[in-house]
Design a protein that fits this description.
The protein has helices spanning 4-9, 17-28, 39-46, 50-62, 79-90, 93-109, 151-158, 162-168, 184-197, 239-244, 246-259, and strands at residues 36-37, 66-68, 75-77, 112-119, 122-129, 144-146, 200-203, 210-218, 224-233. It has 264 residues and is an alpha+beta fold. It has two domains: 4-77, Arc Repressor Mutant, subunit A; 85-259, Beta-Lactamase. The protein has a six-stranded antiparallel β-sheet with strand order 6-5-4-9-8-7, sandwiched between helices. Strands 1-3-2 form a three-stranded antiparallel β-sheet. β7 and β8 form a beta hairpin. α2 crosses α4 and α7 packs across α9. The longest helix has 17 residues, at 93-109. The relative contact order is 0.11.
């Protein structure tokens, strides 16, 4: 007769547990500093042999969790991994923490306020608050836009290490509007200004007739974890009026940062 107590105190490993752990280890090998890794690099990081690592990568690729780089010599996280991360981010504490600050920012600025984070080369809207003056429309939470075309995206891209930024941004850049930055050289110049000024603007670059301004949100490690913005029609928010929103925008970002443990 089976000893129930001994079975529960020393459970046999479930079938496939080792394979799952090894696959998860491969996924965790990728980082912001090293978004692409070759097979030998993955073998070195994971401790797996080459055959096992390649077999697991092939299985992960079939599910969209990893993908080959454009040159085919390296691997990177795939679209399904990004989608899973985006869903986790949408349900993260950042949304709850930022909510009252976004609502106050929308009330004070009279414009739509959002908090956004970087997912690959896109920004993802995690939270949003609309003012009474804002045009009514469908909620934008969960929407993704090309990072280089948005004020929040520029803030987040400007904070990345140069190698990471180079790996994310590839020519030709998407152009959702006529005024979207078109070249990597122009974007590099713009991001240098963002780092110098501490904020970013997008003037008709995501959508014709829509302007926005964004500032960084920092976490307990002083890293830029997200960006907060206000935006609205360019007729109501030309550049000088956007800059008038900076004090309220920075107060909101500072409040969220403190709630995330930033002590700067």
């Amino acid at each position: 007769m089976m000893n129930y107590h001994s079975t529960m105190s020393n459970p046999a490993p479930y079938s496939g547990t080792q394979a799952v752990r090894r696959a998860v280890g491969l996924l965790k090998a990728f980082s912001e500093a090293r978004p692409e890794l070759t097979l030998p690099e993955l073998v070195a990081v994971s401790g797996l042999n080459k055959t096992t690592a390649f077999r697991l990568l092939t299985a992960l690729a079939a599910e969209g969790l990893v993908a080959r780089s454009e040159e085919g010599a390296a691997w990177r996280l795939g679209p399904e991994a990004i989608a899973l991360g985006a869903r986790a981010l949408r349900s993260s504490d950042l949304r709850a923490v930022s909510r009252p600050f976004l609502e106050e920012l929308a009330r004070r600025s009279g414009e739509t306020a959002t908090i956004e984070t970087l997912v690959g080369a896109d920004v993802l809207i995690l939270g949003e608050a609309r003012s009474r003056e804002s045009l009514l429309g469908a909620p934008s939470v969960g929407t993704r836009w090309p990072a280089h075309a948005t004020s929040t995206g520029k803030v987040l891209l400007a904070a990345l290490p140069e190698p990471t930024r180079r790996s994310l941004l590839r020519a030709p850049l998407a152009r959702p509007a006529r005024r979207t930055i078109a070249t990597l050289a122009a974007l590099r110049r713009e991001l240098a200004q963002v780092r110098s000024h501490g904020y970013a603007t997008a003037l008709g670059e995501l959508e014709d007739g829509y302007n926005a301004i964004g500032v960084p949100v920092r976490d307990h490690d002083s890293r830029v974890a997200a960006a907060v913005s206000v935006g609205g029609p360019s007729a109501r928010l030309p550049l000088e009026r956007l800059r008038d929103r900076l004090p309220a925008l920075r107060r909101a970002a500072d409040g969220i940062s403190r709630r995330l443990g930033f002590a700067g």
